[in-house]
From TrEMBL, chain A:
This is Sugar ABC transporter permease. The chain crosses the membrane at residues 7-29, 75-96, 108-129, 155-181, 202-226, 268-287. GO terms for biological process: transmembrane transport. InterPro entries: ABC_transporter_permease, MetI-like, MetI-like_sf. GO terms for cellular component: plasma membrane. Residues 71-283 form the ABC transmembrane type-1 domain.
UniProtKB/TrEMBL annotation, chain B:
This is Carbohydrate ABC transporter permease. The chain crosses the membrane at residues 17-39, 81-101, 121-141, 147-170, 191-216, 249-270. It comes from the Bacteria. InterPro entries: MetI-like (IPR000515), MetI-like_sf (IPR035906). It is found in: Cell membrane. It is a multi-pass membrane protein. Keywords: Cell membrane, Membrane, Transmembrane, Transmembrane helix, Transport. Its main location: membrane. Belongs to the binding-protein-dependent transport system permease family. The keyword Ribonucleoprotein does not apply.
UniProtKB/TrEMBL annotation, chain C:
It comes from the Bacteria. PROSITE patterns: PROKAR_LIPOPROTEIN. PANTHER family: ARABINOSE-BINDING PROTEIN-RELATED, POLYGALACTURONAN_RHAMNOGALACTURONAN-BINDING PROTEIN YTCQ. Residues 25-53 are annotated as: Disordered. The keyword Transmembrane helix does not apply. This is Extracellular solute-binding protein. SUPFAM superfamilies: Periplasmic binding protein-like II. Pfam families: SBP_bac_1. Residues 1-22 form the signal peptide. It comes from Velocimicrobium porci. Residues 28-44 have a biased composition (Low complexity). Keywords: Cell membrane, Lipoprotein, Membrane, Palmitate, Signal.
Amino acid sequence: MLYKKKWPLIVFLIPGLIMMGVFLYYPFISNIGNSFYNMSSVVRMPGVELNFIGLENYKNLFKDPYIKIALKNSFLMMILTVIFQVGLALVFAILVNSIRRGQQLFRTLYFFPVVISASALGLLFKLFYDYNGGMLNQILEKMGKEPVMWLSESLAFTMISIPVLWSYVGFYFVIILTGICDIPDDVYEAAAIDGCSGFKSVFYITVPLLRGVLCTCITLAVTGALKVFDLPWMLAEKGAPNGTTHFLGTYMYHTAFSNNNFDYGSTIALFIVVVGVIVSKAVDFIVKPDKNL
Amino acid sequence: MAAEVKKNKKPIKISTIIIYIVLILWAVTTVFPFIWVFMNSFKESQDVISNSFAWPKAFELMNYEKAFRRVNIGMAYRSSLIISGSVMVGVMILSSMMAFAMTRYQFKGKKVVDALIKGSLMFPVFATIIPVMAMMVKVGFINSGNLLAAILPQIAGNLSFAAIVMMGFLRGLPLEMEEAAYMEGAGVAKVFTRIIIPLSKPSLATVAIFCFLWSYNDLFTQSCLVRKKALLPICALLKQISSIYGTDYGLMAAAVTLIVVPVMIVYILLQKNIVKGLTAGAVKG
Amino acid sequence: MRKTKKAIALMLAFGLTMSMMTGCGSSDEQTTNNGGNTETTETTDGTEETSEDEACTLNVVTMMAGEDANTDNYNKVVEQFQKDHPNITIEDNSATADNDWKVQIEADFSMDNEPDVIQYFTDKSAENILKADKFVTLEEMQAENPEIAKNTSDVALEQTKSPVDGKNYAVPTTGYWEGLFCNKDLFDKYNLELPTDWDKLETAVKTFKENDIVPVALAMNDVPNYWIEFLMMTASTTDEFVQIPEKAPKSWVEGLSKIKDLYDLGAFSKDVATVDNEMAQNTFKDKKAAMILEGSWFLNGVPDTENTVVCAFPRWDGAKSEEGTAISGYSSGFYITKKAWEDPAKKKAALEFVLANTCDKQILTYWGGNGACSVPVPEGGDFNPLQVSGAKYAETIKNPVGPTDSRMTPEAFNGLKDNMVAIATGKMSAEKGINNMLKINSQK
């Protein structure tokens, strides 16, 4: 009843949409235009004629073997982020919420990797993995074993995934913890009277009531996996070895910034957005966040 | 509350101990990098690479001295706080309004707006920065050193994330309260400011934390839109650690330490709002 | 009276080591404003000069910032300039020249937001900006102030010509050379000769490999540039090397294919395909690797300056390059934009500022014994053994040529870089890799 009249929509929705329109959509759409020209620099220089190449970049997109690798890796990363980032975050949030002493401390400590800039984390893991005297190989050496090529073709994806997944658990941890805070105590109290407590209450109360928050986390996780960029780039630049570790995010950066192919970079950017919208719609379809409204 | 529930049970000590062990183990992995960064901030660059995991030989401050020489730290913190603080507040206001509209109203084109919000979540900065720079040059913000040049685009950039998170939280809020208020004659504005906002304080705090953090760490956007050396934010320190031919890792460790500290303070202050009990009485009413 | 003071000052100045020098004369006589002598500074800083400056703000951008070896030297110039010209405000926005920065600069030029004076690249990577035709030519500058680039060597001027129209726009400062750095102590330890020819290189590679020392430190996925350039250069005559052909020339293919021979011989570390440049450099610095092909800027970072030497890239039988050919040159310089030129006050200020950065003394300070210097270098100076070794090597470069990427678009050259691992491991032929680069290059 309260929400029958539609005029407040204008007040609530329009300011935000204007901001997004001016600073996100207008620039992004004008950037799409670049994908039809052969750009030699990031921007049209005055006095420079650009070659119109039509749909050339879009045709390339479907022929490009690296796009396939990147897409495959990104989808794999999506699944891993949902399982490990959101999953672990849920476990830790429930555990931290269940203890009495040190809640604040754990909340603070778990947030550290989210705050530390990727350049430092990247270096840390680089020094773990380094073949010539990295930390892991030093340990192996002390145990009398042969050093391992941690970033070889067979291992690279796993070794890159570990820091990527680990570093953002804290992010979902905070969001889920907030969701748990929103669950009223009396729900638990009522359940306890009915004999539902301890771990049982987690499955029958906490998780179902977190549905909306978990759906948000999953949406953020899959779209985040599409954008994942800085840690993989630091650990295995340019999809090393042999382009096997490209993700859509790193491949786009590689194309646009390190190879100066800005027009193709714009094409990939558009591709990522399209894939992202499709995937997030699919997520909505599967988990149905709006159910309880 | 779970803790209270446990009290009623028989000695459950062992499971509590296991829980603590698991939590502490994870905490070790999350704290380690920070200690590592801090330790390495007292080393020479070469030493960082060769003896990264060793204790520093001496707690020498040369990297910090260098950082202070390269950037006016006080001014840089000030810029960062102004920019990221404004971004945080702007996003909180706009995103809660948008989420309110998106979760409480049914309207034509809702799905389109939803897709627009989710789509923009994936816009890479590199694809939007040039037209934004052109806009800011045109209105004169870049040349006059107006920090709005960085604030406005960053508000927009964080808005989609914040709106999605707020939408998730608001969906979980029961409608009864709002309807009860309506019965008592409250209008939409009153419902929004007196019920929705207080109830979503924890969620707003969460959104605020991340918007602050991302704005604060977004070196690329800020360095494109803030040009005056005197106004550069603190994360610009990371631009000072390298040359085309290499990076000073000791200086990087010091820079990262200097950059992390204020964010952690903001986080600790804000997360105090993420506490239980706000909704408890409310639903009953 | 003033003349004697000047003479004394000159003598004093002569006695000072080059590294002590802080600034240059902002007026016609360079020597008078030597930072080493306050007396003369007083006389020349007299009223006639400073009062002539009209008040203006000069926007300046250079690449000397952050950890660049010359950040402090440059900051001193700015400081001194501010003292000498109290009416001119220098707004300095120098930054490290990374990818993001280049994007920012290109964007600025396209939006008519360019600075007044900029130190920027002069090779193919500056082509976009040069095409926009926003700079004043060197001739115009010299017509206003004949002191500009007065002693600059012909080589430096030749190499900093615009790739767009062949005119000089930039005043070059210092250049670089690339050469083979060797850990001489490792060579001595295994009784090896320095790799002065290809056979010796191969012998060294085999011996080091047997003894678990990485023969050549290289990040093939990250920065294979120097190997690409030297292999193709050594296999070609100079004319062949500097051409921009349509199809891969035989000599280029022959040269580049050597990377596979070396790879098969075990010349590189096992992680050559994944390691990044700084980690690879570190294996050399830590004496875990015996050789590294690098540029003169690498001199600064080597901790052991006693036992490290620089030698010429080895030539094999049948290599067509002349002896003494090496990748060396100038790839950046100071520009003045037309925007500044239109404003008389800024024009004068810009000229003074460029002069302060490019007069002989300042260039020598920037040079500091590393790389190539665009003005004559006086005898003496306080250099470490590695710098001496570098300088000796630089003297042997009779035929400096610019690297391949100074003639190709960045997109094209990076295309080849991306394929280097595939070429070394035999997954792609060198010919295909080069043809691919040439194809991309011809598109723009």
